[in-house]
Amino acid sequence: MSNDNYILGNKVTENLRSFEIAPSILSADFTRLGEAIGAVEDGGATVLHVDVMDGHFVPNITIGLPVVRSLRAATRMTIDTHLMISEPGRYAVEFVKAGADMVSVHVEADVHLQRTLTAIKGAGARAGIAINPATPLVALEEALPYADFVLLMSVNPGFGGQSFIPTSLDKLRRLRSMIDQRGLATRIEIDGGIDGDNIAEIRDAGADIVVAGSAVFGGGKPTEAVKELLDNATVWV
Q: What is the pTM of this model?
């Protein structure tokens, strides 16, 4: 590892400014969701991750448009909506209208991905491509110029509390290289099994946004958990 990992040169400083924690409300107590949102914001979180599951594309059912509307009324944080649903092109713009600032759709679920990404951006939100652990990066190659961000899944989507898939780290590095070589401004978000033990290595590999659910809400102190994750993320490995 070069000395740039320890000395705050221009590149490192830029990375530190752009790095964000996105707590996933899937792991929060839904009976106290307003309190949970305030707590993570107090800890320094700037993005709120919302998992939308339909019981078809993934084996679970969660929340939909009404909850996103309620979240929009409750916070000024960036609302990041991850659509784990079949036919996401039918609903993506509706989530923007409901208040989402970021909307990601799965490359595996959308046969007209470029059209959906363009529609999301046209509606005024940032458009993202989500990709499952076993899906090769070549699957998103042609659509990459149309994406504001890529959501790299480091667990198989559908349930919280899973362990980080180790091969995701190499995939993250390869995605970072693909984006940089093309000169794109596309950001990388990563989701699944991230905690204080691996967040620094994940950030170092090229992640701009880290989704954390159990690591934030599992211990009952979300404000402190977000602060700790941010602190750990700045320790270069």
A: 0.90
